[in-house]
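lol forgot to send this yesterday, sorry. struct tokens for the thing we talked abt
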């Protein structure tokens, strides 16, 4: 007995044992109320008998063929009885003709067996008889599968709970026979390798068939996870690919000589290269995932898996060292299989500004990414934007008029998810189009809305923690400044006392004059410093007065140009109202920052002009530039500095000083190109109008 024979013996023996145990199980544990219980026991027992005969005798012996015919007839009768489980007895007459036809085709196997034994005396007749028998078996398998489909598709919901295990087992049994006899018909002989597996197939399908006859079988549900289904489809695709390659290689065997060898080697190399390039690709995996979800599952998402992945993404800070803002984008992108995304957050003026970029292609993204009107609309409607609909002209709440042009033209922009926290918009995530394009549906909208609210709470919590941390740092800063102010005040008092004593006791007029000038200047400087430091604890008490921006800017340029090239490109007289000392201090901060960011020989440029409503002072450098993330998250944050030893309060102080005068500081920057800071202060006429308007509003409130 060869290897194939030994394997066949073991396989059919296992099949006989399992089928026998299945028949006993159905007899003892099966539901006695089912009318098909006895036919099922007989069918499984005859299958065990066939496996026993196949294990005991060589293939092709009449006893093996006869037991197989008996097995098939028993299974057809079981199929016929399954139609009566949901009260279809009066409709069995519609199924009976088909079952009778299949039984007659199977009975023809007796005649073919007789012909093969007595009359197929030539190889041609033997082959014809074998092909006919195989073709009849294919017809029976196809007919049985069609009946099974109609049985399950037309059954009531309660009947499906009873039938599903039995139908699944019979479908597997006849599907295996269909493939086996189809290959046998094509090859003209039984496929030896598959013949070995027939016994194991009978054992495998007998187990779910027996389970289907237990009373609690309706509570057992076969529900594979999405991961298992996806991997099964992947293996199925790979198996199909390899089968096609094998078939082509076998077909090439018809060639001969060196041409055959050269062609086969080339085919192997090409197939391997294609497998390495195509099979592991993200696009193929995305297509498999979409196909599996679309056809095999009721819901698109496996919510348990998505929630676990979402929690891991948000809660893990170690991978790639990315910020919470970037992890927020990644968490949403992973749900929709988007390869990249952006996070926009409301700025100080209400516009949506770029806060995080997770793998979005291109560097030239605008810092101010969307207008305030869009942010307000999304906050009121909580609308998830579908950019494909917007490009098609579909408008739900008037959002079409507020979509910025760069998002309209960027075809990779696919969806925008608002992040809502207590009816307040804290961010907007722009998702890129998945590799396998599809249309957003209701399940996408529901899940993205829920996840968006969860992400918004994380961002709001981080903002609160940052505010508390800044408040703590300011508290520490104020404590330190209190001691500094106390020391300076004591020094100022001592110097003032010294000045008074010197006025009374100095003998030499020249010495007295020099000492008085020196001490008076020192006292004035210390008092000015004390007054400036006192502003950090509360509002300024200095009177607002008129001054010229051009004069103040030239004064600062002359002061700092001694250390670095600073040029005034444009200087127009602009009268504004404010605190000139505070303006000088703010402008010094900005020009000094520009000097620090520039190369030694690179000039810093200053422009002073008016746009009719505001006076503008622009500071321009050609330095290293800043990223949108740094501008948004770090530039105006106190105690955060990119310079070694920097205190990190210069830009923050400059902005606060300008704001205290009713102005604003804007910044534009590109990494590698440079930075432009613009100070805007209301001109004198506009400032007076604003003060009168504020005064009128206060009187109305009073």
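and heres what i got for the seq, position by position
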């Amino acid at each position: 007995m060869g290897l194939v024979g030994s394997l066949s013996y073991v396989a059919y023996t296992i099949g006989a044992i399992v089928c026998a145990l299945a028949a006993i199980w159905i007899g003892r544990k099966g539901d006695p109320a089912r009318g098909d219980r006895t036919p099922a026991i007989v069918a499984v027992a005859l299958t065990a008998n066939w496996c026993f005969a196949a294990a005991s005798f060589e293939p092709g012996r009449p006893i093996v063929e006869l037991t197989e015919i008996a097995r098939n007839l028993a299974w057809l009768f079981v199929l016929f009885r399954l139609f009566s489980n949901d009260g279809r007895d009066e409709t069995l007459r519609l199924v009976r003709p088909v079952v009778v036809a299949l039984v007659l085709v199977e009975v023809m196997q007796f005649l073919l067996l007789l012909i093969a034994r007595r009359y197929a005396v030539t190889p041609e007749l033997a082959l014809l008889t074998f092909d006919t028998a195989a073709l009849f078996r294919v017809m029976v398998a196809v007919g049985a599968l069609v009946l099974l489909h109609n049985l399950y598709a037309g059954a009531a919901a309660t009947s499906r709970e009873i039938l599903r295990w039995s139908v699944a087992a019979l479908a597997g049994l006849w599907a295996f026979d269909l493939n086996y006899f189809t290959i046998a018909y094509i090859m003209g002989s039984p496929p030896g390798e598959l013949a070995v597996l027939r016994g194991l197939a009978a054992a495998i399908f007998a187990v779910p068939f027996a389970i289907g006859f237990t009373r609690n079988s309706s509570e057992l549900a076969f529900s594979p996870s999405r991961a298992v289904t996806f991997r099964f489809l992947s293996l199925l695709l790979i198996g199909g690919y390899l089968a096609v390659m094998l078939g082509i290689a076998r077909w090439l065997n018809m060639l001969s000589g060196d041409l055959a060898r050269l062609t086969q080697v080339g085919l192997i190399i090409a197939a391997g290269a294609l497998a390495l390039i195509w099979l592991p690709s993200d696009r193929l995996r995305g297509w498999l995932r979409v196909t599996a979800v679309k056809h095999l599952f009721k819901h698109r998402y496996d919510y348990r898996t998505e929630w676990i992945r979402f929690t891991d993404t948000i809660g893990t800070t170690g991978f790639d060292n990315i910020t919470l803002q970037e992890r927020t984008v990644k968490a949403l992108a992973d749900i929709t299989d988007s390869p990249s995304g952006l996070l926009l957050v409301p700025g100080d003026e209400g516009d949506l500004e770029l806060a995080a970029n997770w793998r979005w292609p291109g560097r030239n993204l605008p810092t101010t990414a969307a207008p305030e009107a869009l942010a307000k609309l999304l906050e009121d409607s909580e609308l998830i934007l579908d950019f494909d609909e917007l490009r098609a002209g579909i408008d739900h709440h008037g959002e079409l008029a507020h979509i910025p042009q760069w998002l309209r033209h960027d075809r990779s922009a696919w969806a925008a998810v608002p992040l809502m926290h207590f009816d307040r918009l804290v961010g907007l995530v722009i998702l890129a189009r998945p590799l396998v394009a599809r249309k957003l549906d209701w399940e996408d909208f529901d899940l993205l809305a829920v996840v968006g609210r969860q992400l918004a709470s994380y961002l709001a919590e981080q903002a609160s923690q940052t505010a508390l941390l800044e408040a703590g740092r300011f508290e520490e800063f104020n404590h330190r400044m209190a001691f500094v102010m106390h020391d300076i005040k004591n020094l100022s008092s001592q110097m003032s006392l010294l000045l008074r004593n010197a006025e009374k006791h100095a003998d030499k007029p020249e010495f007295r004059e020099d000492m008085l000038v020196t001490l008076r200047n020192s006292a004035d400087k210390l008092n000015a410093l004390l007054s400036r430091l006192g502003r950090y604890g509360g509002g300024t008490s200095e009177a607002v007065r008129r001054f010229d921006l051009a004069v103040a800017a030239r004064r600062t340029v002359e002061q700092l140009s001694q250390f670095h090239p600073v040029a005034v490109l444009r200087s127009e007289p602009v009268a504004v109202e404010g605190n000139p000392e505070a303006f000088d201090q703010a402008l010094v901060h900005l020009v000094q920052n520009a000097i620090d960011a520039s190369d030694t020989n690179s000039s810093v440029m200053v422009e002073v002009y008016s746009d009719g409503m505001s006076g503008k002072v622009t500071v321009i450098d050609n330095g290293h530039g800043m990223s949108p993330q740094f501008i948004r998250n770090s530039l105006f944050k106190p105690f955060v500095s990119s310079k070694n030893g920097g205190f990190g309060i210069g830009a923050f102080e400059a902005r606060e000083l300008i704001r205290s005068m009713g102005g604003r500081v804007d910044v534009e920057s590109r990494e590698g190109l440079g930075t432009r800071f613009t100070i805007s202060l209301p001109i004198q006429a506009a400032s007076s109008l604003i003060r009168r308007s504020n005064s009128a509003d206060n009187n109305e409130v009073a």
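DSSP finds 22 helices and 13 strands in the chain. anyway ping me if u want another try
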